[in-house]
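residues and backbone:
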Amino acid sequence: MEPKIERVIKRDGTQEKFQFRKISSAILRASKSCKVTPKEEKLEELKNEFSKLEVEVITVDKIHEIVGEFLDKYDPNVAKKYVANRRDHTKTKDFVKRKIGFINKYKKTDNTANSTVDDNSNVGSRNIGVLNAEIHKEDNIDVSRAMIMSKLEELFPDFDPKQYIEDLESHIIYKNDESSFCGAISPYCVSMTMYPFLTDGIYKIGGLSAKPKNLDSFCGMFINLVFATSAQFAGAVACPEALLYFDYFSKKEWGDDYYLRSDEVISSSACKREKTIKGQIHQYFQQIVYSINYLWPLVVISR
C-alpha cells in the first residue's frame, strides 16, 4: 500500500515531494556500514507504517523519528548508524549553506575586511584568491582554539574552556590571528637571519633554489625566500639583513664605490633603453617591493 503522504517539510521550511526510496536508501547505507543486509519485507513493513498515517504533509524530523523507532526494534546498531548518518548529513548541509552564504555576502561587500570573520584581517582587495583563503577562516578558528585550549588545560588544571571562549568573544582577552593554525603552534611573527640563505639558498626550508651568485639572482631568490617563510607564519616576516646583502651584491656587480657613480651608464650600445646604476637599482627594488606587497603578512626588510 502506497503512503498518502505527498510532501515533506524540511528544516529550512522548504518542501519537497515525499519519496520512500530516499528512506530505504538511507537505511541501506546505515545497514551496509554495520555489515548487514536489511530484509525486503522489513522495508515493506516500514513503508506500511507510513501508509497508516492519514496526512499529506509530514516534517523531516517526524520521518526520522518513525524510521529510528522502527529500526531500533530489529537492529539497534543500524538504528544508531542511521541517526548518526542523518546528524552528519545535517551538519554537512548546514556547513555548505553557511559557506554559500559567506560567498554571497563576500560578493556584495566593498572589501574583504567587511565580510571576513577575522577581526585582524588587513586585506582590502576582493578576488577569487582572497575568497579562497577567507572562506575557511571560521573553521580554522575552531581548530586553532581547540589546540590552544588543549595546551592550556594541560598547563593549568583549573583552566575553564567555557570562560576562555567567553573572554575571547567579549574581547576581554585577544589571541592573535586565530584564523591561522600557525597562531596555535608557532610564533606569530618572525625575524630571521639571511646568512644560511647566502650559503645554501632555500633548500633547507623546502625550496629548490641554490645560493644566489649575483645581484639579479639575489633579488629573485630573496622574493622566493620571503614567500616560503611567510607561508609558515601568521604574522610579519622581518629580514633586517636584506639591505646589507643587497649592498654586498651591488659591490660585486659594480665595485665598492658604485653609489658614487649612480649616473654611470651600464647598458650596452645594443640596448634600446639606456640604463644607469641608479636606474637598475630602482628596477630591482620595484621587483622586490611589488612582489612582496602581494603577500598578506607584513614584510619588513629593514629596521
